[in-house]
Design a protein that fits this description.
Helices cover about 0% and strands about 55% of the residues. By secondary structure, the protein is mainly beta. The chain has one domain: predicted glycosyltransferase like domains (Thrombin, subunit H, Beta Barrel). The chain has a six-stranded antiparallel beta barrel with strand order 2-3-4-7-6-5.
Length: about 100
């Protein structure tokens, strides 16, 4: 099940302003180290996200996603891999799949 973040409705059924959730994708660059990129969250599911970015990504690229938790409780970070990146009129639409954490 996918939770769409770009088309919520009010209780009366009319469109409401979408919530603006910014997360950070931290990617590794061989020449610049860890680079935090702001991403606007568009869709969220149990297996990944779709986000808007100003930067293009390569399929297969791995990164760490840092997302806010509930208000005032910090953030959670998850490893993810880019599964697609498509250019559109607002930048790039990036599909990221969460990676399973290694078991201890």
């Amino acid at each position: 099940m996918t939770g769409r973040m770009d088309s919520p409705e009010t209780s009366a059924g009319s469109p409401a302003s979408p919530p603006q959730v910014t997360i950070y994708g931290i990617r590794r660059s061989s020449d610049r180290g860890n680079i935090p990129d702001p991403l606007k969250l568009l869709e969220l599911s149990a297996t990944g996200i779709v986000a808007r970015s100003d930067q293009p990504y390569d399929a297969g690229q791995q990164m760490v996603l840092c997302m806010p938790l509930t208000l005032g409780t910090g953030k959670g970070c998850l490893p993810a891999t880019v599964v697609r990146c498509d250019r559109d009129s607002d930048g790039f639409r990036v599909g990221l799949m969460f990676l399973k954490a290694a078991s201890a």
